[in-house]
Design a protein that fits this description.
The chain is built from five helices and two strands. The protein is mainly alpha-helical and 115 residues long. The chain has one domain. The protein has a two-stranded antiparallel ribbon with strand order 1-2. A hairpin with a 2-residue loop joins strand 1 and strand 2. Helix 1 packs antiparallel against helix 3. It is rod-shaped, with a radius of gyration of 21 Å. The two termini are 32 Å apart. Keywords: Membrane, Transmembrane, Transmembrane helix. InterPro entries: DUF621.
Length: 115
C-alpha cells in the first residue's frame, strides 16, 4: 500500500495489490489472453523470418541493407523469446493460481533450483 499526499492535510491511499476475482471481467481476461497470443505469434513470426532469410541468403545477399535487416530480425526474435519465457508465465498467473504454482514458473523465478 502506498500513501501519497496532494496537500499536507489530505492523505490519499493507493492500493497496488491484487485484483479481486469479482472485479475481473471480460476485458481483463481478453487483455491477458491477447498479450499471450500476440507474444507467441510474434515469436513464431520472427523465427519464420530468420529461417526464410537463412534459406534465401544467396538470393538476398546483393540487397544493400539485408545484413542490417537480418540483425534487426534476430534482435526482435531474441526480445520476443525472452518476453515469451518471462512475461507470458507471469501474465498467465494473473488468470489462475494453479499456473502461478507450476514448475515452469518456479524455474523462471529461481533457475538454479528445480523441484
Amino acid at each position: 500500500m502506498v500513501f501519497t499526499t496532494r496537500s499536507p492535510h489530505i492523505g490519499i491511499i493507493e492500493d497496488f495489490g491484487e485484483i479481486q476475482d469479482y472485479e475481473k471481467g471480460f476485458v481483463y481476461y481478453f487483455a491477458v489472453l491477447l498479450f499471450v497470443i500476440v507474444t507467441i505469434f510474434s515469436t513464431l513470426l520472427t523465427a519464420t523470418f530468420i529461417i526464410v532469410s537463412i534459406f534465401l541468403w544467396n538470393h538476398f545477399k546483393p540487397i544493400k541493407f539485408f545484413w542490417f535487416l537480418s540483425q534487426l530480425t534476430i534482435s526482435a526474435f531474441l526480445i520476443s523469446t525472452l518476453n515469451l519465457l518471462i512475461n507470458v508465465p507471469a501474465a498467465l498467473s494473473l488468470i489462475s493460481a494453479e499456473i502461478a504454482q507450476s514448475r515452469e514458473k518456479s524455474f523462471i523465478k529461481n533457475p538454479t533450483k528445480i523441484r
